[in-house]
């Protein structure tokens, strides 16, 4: 009986049952980030096509990438504009596209505002990888700081724009050569 009461309370209050943040936005959005730490101040733009759980990331000086988190396992590709080539995205990169490893454990730490938007601070850990994210209730990462494979770094949103995204921007461009997978 006591177990049923606990289950009923958790079902009535979903926030109490939440063990991790929503890591994929629930609506279309474009976010501009600046890199934190390090000498080079990099600007990164990410656009989410929420209905398909796809994210496009603009990589200055290289091209852009698309990760599809709506497939199991996630899939993705990198477009090298100058070379007019496309290659499959490595699994370890896909695993980090949402800000934290997909298998991370989360602990809620508080709240903050980034780029004028409220977010919840979450500490995460996955093996030796750890860090903090500030996530909105609708799944938008506004800040990420942590370590991955012995490297530290982070990024923070400077602008958030909720707007429909053009699905054609998330497709492999026509006429580009696909690079052979590494063996």
From TrEMBL:
Entry keyword Signal: yes
Region spans: Disordered: 152-183
Keywords: Signal
Signal peptide segment: 1-19
Full protein name: DUF4412 domain-containing protein
């Amino acid at each position: 009986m006591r177990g049923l009461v606990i289950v009923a309370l958790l079902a009535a209050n979903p926030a109490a049952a939440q063990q991790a943040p929503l890591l994929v936005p629930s609506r279309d959005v474009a976010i501009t980030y600046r890199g934190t730490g390090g000498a080079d101040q990099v600007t990164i733009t990410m656009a989410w096509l929420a209905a398909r759980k796809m994210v496009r990331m603009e990589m200055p000086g290289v091209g852009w990438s698309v990760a599809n988190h709506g497939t199991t396992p996630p899939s993705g590709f990198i477009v090298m504009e100058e070379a007019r080539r496309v290659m499959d995205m490595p699994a370890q990169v896909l695993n980090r596209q949402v800000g934290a490893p997909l298998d991370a454990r989360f602990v809620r730490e508080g709240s903050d505002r980034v780029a004028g938007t409220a977010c919840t601070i979450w500490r995460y850990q996955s093996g030796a990888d750890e860090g903090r994210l500030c996530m909105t209730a609708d799944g938008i990462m506004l800040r990420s700081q942590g370590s991955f494979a012995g490297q530290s770094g982070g990024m923070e949103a400077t602008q958030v724009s909720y707007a429909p995204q053009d699905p054609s921007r998330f497709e492999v461009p026509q006429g580009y050569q696909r690079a052979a997978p590494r063996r």
